[in-house]
Amino acid sequence: MKRIPDEFIISMVFKSAIDREELLIKKYEDYSKNMKSEELKEMIDEFKSEAQGHISMIKDKIMQLNLQGLG
Questions:
Q1: Which domain, by its residues, includes 18?
Q2: Residue 69 in domain
Q3: Other C-beta atoms within 10 Å of 13: how many?
Q4: What pLDDT, on the 0 to 100 scale, is given for residue 66?
Q5: Could you tell me if residue 38 is inside a domain?
Q6: Looking at the record's lineage, which domain of life comes first (predicted)?
């Protein structure tokens, strides 16, 4: 059986993580539009900011590992 290269697996994990964070951001934006409570909107905005930070962190790691086609 052929072995899958580690670089491929890591690339797929990072891509999946970015995709999930981007989906969370979209959901948070939708939730925020429908919220009446300013307190809840602020909380959702914090979650959105955290997700954006996660994406930046993942992209930084991709660059550190010099993974092609992901950064």
A1: 9-64
A2: no
A3: 11
A4: 83
A5: yes
A6: Bacteria
From the CB of residue 48, how many other CB atoms can be counted at a distance below 10 Å? 19
Position 56 in a domain: yes
Tally of domains within the chain: 1
Q: Would you state the pLDDT for residue 69? A: 59
The single-letter code of the amino acid at 16 is S
Q: SS3 of 66, please?
A: coil
Amino acid at 20: R
Residue 2 maps to a domain:
no
d(CA 35, CA 43): 11
Q: Which residue carries 């925020």 as its tokens?
A: 32
Chain mean position to CA 52: 7
Q: What is the mean pLDDT of each run of 10 residues along the chain (71 residues)?
A: 87 95 97 93 96 97 79 53
